[in-house]
Amino acid sequence: MGEPYSKAETLALRRKYIGPSCKVFFAKDPLKIVRAHGQYMFDENGEKYLDCINNVAHVGHCHPHVTKAATKQMELLNTNSRFLHDNLVQYAQRLTATLPEKLSVCYFVNSGSEANDLALRLARQYRGHQDVITLDHAYHGHVTSLIDISPYKFNQLEKDSKKEFVHVAPSPDIYRGKYREDHPDPASAYAEEVKKIIEQAQKNGRKIAAFIAESMQSCGGQVIPPVGYFQKVAQYVHAAGGVFITDEVQVGFGRVGKHFWAFQLQGEDFVPDIVTMGKPIGNGHPMSCVVTTKEIAEAFGASGLEYFNTFGGNPVSCAIGLAVLEIIEKEDLQGNATRVGNYLLELLTEQKQKHPLVGDIRGVGLFVGVDLVKDRQKRTPATAEALHLIYKLKEQQILLSADGPHRNVLKFKPPMCFTMEDAKHVVDKIDVLLTELEAATGMKTANDASTNAQNRRKVNEGNSQMQSVNESIGHINGAACRQENGFYSDKHSVPSKRIQT
Q1: Is the pLDDT of residue 478 over 60?
Q2: Quick one: CA torsion of 431, 480, 181, 231, rounded to 10 degrees?
């Protein structure tokens, strides 16, 4: 069936009726997507795009088992959770079975932002404390309470935008952070920074309610905390009367492969007090969840304030959630994440050995980052080059994004049905584009067999391309990381002085 509007008409109507802060991907030439299946999306002309970034469609776009479960339940009943329904308790039982035993109480909501907002309420009610420790470059959602604890967002505002009750700890980034891969114990060093924050806050008469962190930072640049970091931070936070919240919205549900939850990468001796989840939970259907301990849940209930959510935990949502869990198990998507993720990392590591633009490769399962640099020794972020690559890949019908404090980290977070063939296809294209970029910018010596004229032509063409890219950066529109957009204006980048480079 044809679309009612042309792409130009759709864009014009969007500009007229949709708020200007609601940005689109590839703002210079946005895509109009009309259908999707598996790891592919299709535009209005039937052109197929390989989706490397859509962790919302966790088990694959429009998975038939999910759509069938949704349709079947919708035909029977959909209502709120104040009525008894088996889907709610069955799903809660199945979901908590994937978590450590003490995480046994569920609150179903509708988005990752709503989940994190509720997690803050739980933490603050628990002991009556208010202050929150967050990580630098963190993003936890779009509601006011979460913008307040998301440096990724509030650093874009005026100078004094950080609230008094918010404390920012260094991102545990061993490639760009304060303590790097050559440090003998970066986990302890980064945890000590949190301890210092707690001690200073207490000296100022403040009380810590929670430490919150993504189990692996996404907007922060695909950062994987060193093993042992969470355990040590939890020790300090608990001693201060606070709780540890892990945000699994981006990285949960088997994305890391060998574990169902990314926080489990830290070891069996670490168990958070609250876990939040979203995106993958419903494979595109708006649902999310907060799971916590009985102790914290009882303290929340002791306030006397009833908690009610009209759509959270409705029968249709829970039917979809159950279907997603079934698919992950039946199709061995955790195993696929391990196999394909390892292969992707191998291919990208080969590119690092080949291309000076590649500074670092990091990732676990189907959560992978490629940190592009202009100088490996100085680790100078290659922001323009990353954005150039993103747009060139789009021209070749591959959807990838770039993020991190300097918008120079290529982000892989594809649907879990991503294949080895997909991985090779993308990396082959990146290889060609990196070769062209390095020739254009003089990072690599031209092939000796080329003539001087050919060299000059390539360099001139490359410089022209890069000039075009640099001119366009100021016009590239940003959007929340949770919308999977990696294209931002330089004026919104976190100043580089905040990170050692």
Answers
A1: no
A2: -140
